[in-house]
Design goal:
Length: about 400
């Protein structure tokens, strides 16, 4: 029997260094009967069973699971023919009981590339007030409120055009994100993200920065000397999408373009008014926002729908996903028990123990759902703030 603390080597046909560090650790159990099989073969089947559960909960597709579990497992090695999903596996426990073998594995799993699941559910998204990195650039037109006006428009477009998010905007208060981002304080950003997600029941937090709204030096109608000059004005905007579950950066992108500033430079402009948004400059920003909506959809549509458990009572739980997010009576969820841990280098990772229980939704309100275990069994160590996942 191998040492249970030994890290099993994954021989994969892909170079894993091309992946980012956004992998997640999942701890789960697998079982197999020994019967006519040798202990080694039964252990292989049990580990494949455990890995399959971990991959399913992490959002892997059936084909990629088959690619992984059809690999050859020996005592000290897993040889995987083709998979970019799994970085490493640890066998952390093995129990023999009669003719059954049970193993516990911890798998480091990378997100899948555009294999989409739970498309009928919307992900809860909190959009925070943007930040003008160069506030003095707003002097012309006195458009200091552009930081909230752009987010208000983005939220409206997500609600009307977005297919995979249930968004809400936080516009009254400015977060500390830009200050923390400027100082590269990733741990504080993680704490801020998770705190906002917990307070607002959101799966994702969207931060943003307005990097540039300066004027070009050359006016656009210089040949019409009898007319007042109209000048091109820049708009440079960056989005940062974070997971509210673990505080990790999921995606970021920058958008920029130039539009003609049609207004008198001494005129104060209402950035929430129709005149501004129908102007050349406002229309240019609006077109960029349309692109942002599509990009946000693309980056969350393939992610599992994760809700926090807000109440546990025997075999019944309540989660913070409801009718507004697309949940229906009869929907089934897997349960994850939070289990953060620290590696040998002292870095903290968000980890999850995969519960053997699945639950089915029996009652739905606008913002929450009630679900019970499929076999009416008690939920064991499932607690408030653990996760319910649909993939």
């Amino acid at each position: 029997m191998p040492n249970i603390s030994q890290t099993l080597t994954l021989v994969i046909g892909l170079i894993l260094t091309v992946f980012t560090c956004n992998a997640q650790w999942y701890e789960t159990q697998g079982h197999a009967r020994i019967d006519k099989d040798s202990v080694e073969i039964a252990r292989t089947k049990a580990m494949e069973n455990a890995l399959k559960k971990a991959l399913l909960v992490a959002g892997a597709s059936v084909s990629s699971i088959q690619q992984v579990v059809n690999g050859l497992l020996t005592q000290d090695q897993i040889s995987i023919r083709a998979s970019g999903s799994v970085n490493s596996i640890e066998l952390i426990d093995e129990i023999h009981s009669g003719n059954m073998i049970s193993v516990t594995v911890r798998a480091d799993i990378f997100p899948q590339e555009k294999k989409c699941f739970a498309l009928d559910l919307k992900k809860s998204l909190l959009i925070t007030k943007s930040h003008l990195n160069h506030r003095e650039q707003a002097n012309i037109g006195k458009i200091y409120q552009l930081d909230s006006a752009v987010i208000r428009q983005l939220n409206q477009k997500l609600r009307s055009q977005g297919s995979y998010s249930a968004s809400k905007a936080l516009l009254k208060n400015t977060t500390e994100f830009s200050r923390l981002n400027a100082s590269f304080n990733e741990e504080k950003i993680k704490q801020l993200t998770m705190s906002l997600a917990d307070t607002t029941d959101s799966q994702y937090i969207l931060f943003s920065e307005i990097n540039d709204i300066s004027f070009e030096q050359q006016r656009s109608n210089s040949w019409k000397i009898w007319q007042q000059g109209t000048y091109p004005r820049n708009f440079n905007f960056t989005l940062y999408l974070y997971s509210g579950i673990d505080g990790e950066l999921v995606w970021q992108n920058s958008y920029k373009n130039t539009g003609i500033w049609e207004f008198n430079k001494r005129e104060n402009i209402d950035v929430n008014g129709t005149i501004f948004w129908q102007s050349n400059y406002g229309s240019m920003i609006s077109a960029l926002l349309d692109t942002m909506v599509n990009d946000i959809d693309e980056n969350i549509m393939c992610e599992p729908s994760e809700g926090k458990i807000v109440q546990v009572n025997g075999n019944k739980i309540t989660i913070n996903l409801g009718r507004y997010h697309g949940v229906k009576i009869g929907d089934e969820f897997s349960l994850l028990h939070s289990n953060n841990f620290t590696n040998n280098q002292g870095k903290i990772y968000a980890g999850y123990n995969v519960s053997p229980f699945k639950v089915k939704v029996t009652k739905v309100t606008k913002q929450s759902s009630t679900a019970i275990t499929l076999d009416n069994g008690l939920l064991g160590n499932i607690q408030i703030n653990d996760l319910a996942v649909r993939y």
